Amino acid sequence: MFQNILNNFLEVKRQYIQDFKPTSIISEIIPNEFSDFLPIDKQLLAKLHQFISINPIYFKKTNISINNLNFTAYEGDVNEFYLSSKKYDTNYQPFYPTWMLSAFLLCIKSKELGFTELIDIGAGDGRIPYCGSLLNFKSFGIELDASLTELQLDICKKTGIKYETINDDASSFDFEELDLSMPIFFVSGLPEMGEMFIENLIKTTIQNEFKLFGIIFLGSTFKRQFANNVPNYGWGEIIKKNNLKIIDEINLPTHWTNDNNSETTYIVTKKKE
């Protein structure tokens, strides 16, 4: 089921970029209704639309048709929050969100793999922990930028979807405070920027006797062309050093790959038995 939804999602994404040629920094689509092509529950779809509709980074929405299916195309701009996030010395990845439906699919995959808690490091506007809560995860969003943390809290209040927002530096945060049992961590930073908080995450969690423990890494598309020297999209050394096992690679749309033929690769890992 997941793979069919993913393949169909990628098909309509590419059709959207090709036929509608969006020019805004933020451009993405969400289906308006359940279909056999994209069988996503209509109540969950409504909550995905609600997140975007009240999120101030979006300024335009348009009803469009792709493959005889109805979608809403959303456009926006992140300059205000992007610049704000860069002012922190320990910020390793300025705010630049993935597609909402990509975040949702990553959470579906995490659910299929049996994880029970979801922790997004560098949560931005909170779309990943928001989707996690929709799927009944115990969700956490760790974000260094106070303005983005406030945005998360505002969206939670207006949508009624709750998760724990944490305004803190992931490179020094004590993850043991979260009382986790089968957690999966999302690393919203590229390998050339996020090594410090990954090392802290590993140091404070890898020794715990978790029944299940996973990390989803954001693959560096820039490093991809040097795959022989920098394996696993830039994360190979950290994955090997910390005895993690790659269990999946998922290619999904992100706003920084809208103009590319390839998508962004997310590397799903778990602690080796």
Structural notes for this entry:
The chain has 273 residues and is an alpha/beta fold. It has a 7-stranded mixed β-sheet with strand order 6-5-4-7-8-10-9, sandwiched between helices. Strands 1-3-2 form a 3-stranded antiparallel β-sheet, sandwiched between helices. Strand 4, helix 5 and strand 5 form a beta-alpha-beta unit. The longest helix is centred in the first third of the chain and has 19 residues. The radius of gyration is 18 Å and the shape is globular. The two termini are 27 Å apart. 42% of the residues are buried. About 3% of the residues have low confidence.
What brief labels describe this structure?
alpha/beta; Rossmann fold; 9 helices
SSE layout:
Layout: H1 2-20, E1 26-31, H2 42-53, E2 58-66, E3 69-76, H3 79-85, H4 100-112, E4 117-121, H5 127-134, E5 138-143, H6 146-159, E6 164-167, E7 183-187, H7 191-205, E8 214-218, H8 221-224, H9 236-241, E9 244-252, E10 264-271
Parallel strand pairs: 4-5, 4-7, 5-6, 7-8
Antiparallel strand pairs: 1-3, 2-3, 8-10, 9-10
